[in-house]
Amino acid sequence: SAMKTAGAINPVILLDEIDKLASDYRGDPTAAMLEVLDPEQNATFTDHYLDTTYDLSQVLFITTANSAQHIPGPLRDRMEMIEVPGYTEDEKIEIASRHLLRRQLQQNGLTEQAVSFSPDIWRFIIRGYTREAGVRGLDRAIGQLLRKVATLVVRGKTDPGGTVMLDEDRIEEFLGPRKFGFEQDLGGSQVGLAIGLGTTEIGGEIIPVEVATMPG
Predict the structure, then answer these.
(1) Which of 1, 89, 179, 191 is 20 to 30 A off residue 99, Cα-Cα?
(2) Which residues, in sequence order, are bridge partners of residue 116?
């Protein structure tokens, strides 16, 4: 189907979120992918639906995954892994202020003068309400904020000039208590407590490691 749509024998085929492949009683799609992605085998790939062979050796396959750990080992061995790091906090602020905010303003029928953000408030939102490598959660948070702002505008409860100043108190009023804590107050030096540093797909964080005493 993809080859017919492309109309070429050497197209680029993108397999999105290949780590979500799941096996059940109906079969294992991973087995089919092994032959499709293997350059030693896909020149004579057998399409069991059409019961014929087809040459896939000239196709450039690109796959994406949120986590390489969830890709079966035999399938992962047939891929060249290219790690794409998540956005930094400064990059998220630029994306939000230049693109996400403008789009959400249009979707909620507001002008650019309807709200006022500061860089510190952007960091407050990112650190307190999102924990992600991308910006999907940040986009949802902005949309939720602007729906609240639109309600104030309709009710005529905006500040002079029709602008809603979003400070930390206003953010917590609109989005609720912060979901994530960026800084951790460990209460100074403590016996049996060490500080570790961890890195994940969403960035780095501080990990307190405590001793657990056991009998014996």
Answers:
(1) 179
(2) 165
Nearest to 74 by CA among 25, 24, 18: 18
Write out the two tokens for 96: 């939000």
- E strand segments, the chain: 12-15, 45-47, 52-54, 60-63, 115-116, 164-165, 193-200, 203-210
pLDDT tens sequence for the chain (216 residues): 777 788 888 899 898 988 888 666 566 777 778 888 888 888 888 776 667 788 888 889 999 988 788 888 888 888 899 988 888 889 999 999 999 999 999 999 888 888 888 778 999 999 899 888 889 999 999 999 999 999 888 887 776 567 888 889 999 999 999 888 655 666 666 778 888 888 766 667 778 888 888 898
Which of 11, 7, 1 lies closest to 56 in space, CA to CA? 11
Name the pTM for this structure.
0.67
Residue with tokens 């990990």: 207
Report yes or no: 117 and 97 within 8 Å, Cβ to Cβ: yes
Three-state DSSP at 206 gives: strand
- What is the rounded (10 degree) CA torsion for 21, 24, 27, 28? 30
Q: Quick one: CA dihedral 172, 93, 140, 126, positive or negative?
A: negative
CA 157, 161, 163, 167 dihedral sign is: negative
- Rounded (5°) CA angle 30-31-33: 60
Name the strand (E) or helix (H) holding 148: helix 136-154
